[in-house]
């Protein structure tokens, strides 16, 4: 999807490209560090919603055009540069930015995110919600909410403590500390940090590996990991049991067993 211009007068688009079984999503507004307008956020919701029910897909790649990943939600474009009316954010954001983060975390496809330059606010949380984020060593992850005078949103207070613990979450959310790609990887905030010129190849290797995997089993494992973040061990064991029951009924399960018996690499079809 793309838009030459939106009602706010801000250019920007979310472009998609089908590459075999991989859906490639690009945030395309490089002149504003790919900061997102209302229409771009709406397009992301639509694209991810359709991907969630497309059983021919096996992986999703999320990246930004140009030198940066995403500068967050464009406050000027989304609020006309003014304080929003009372109740406006409560009505609007759950169906926009928050829905995007939920979809990235819940779609039963592996999501790989490539980050160069800035990943700010909503853009930072989008990268953290992905299953695997590969970033340039000099990329910058930044949660600037309190620096702008408002409290964190788009899942930051849920994602950060679970990824890096409360102490580091406080540094990022209460002090607005910027975190380099290298430190983000060392902290466990992201999957891997590499040289800027290596980001594409590293992400591509990961995408191909995931896209050739047992898609149903990967999706169920992702679902169980998310479920386990807010439940007991007993409940997680029970969820795993039902997921195993489902995955054992797939063609890929049969192929995995056959490959093991025949001592060869499995050829999964995502079914």
Automatic annotation (TrEMBL):
> What CDD domains has UniProt attached to this entry?
crotonase-like (cd06558)
InterPro entries given for it?
A: ClpP/crotonase-like_dom_sf, Enoyl-CoA_hydra/iso, Enoyl-CoA_hydra_C
- Kindly give the Pfam families that the UniProt entry links to this protein: ECH_1
Q: Provide the GO MF annotations for this entry.
A: catalytic activity
Q: Which family, according to UniProt? A: Belongs to the enoyl-CoA hydratase/isomerase family.
| Protein's name according to its UniProt entry | Enoyl-CoA hydratase
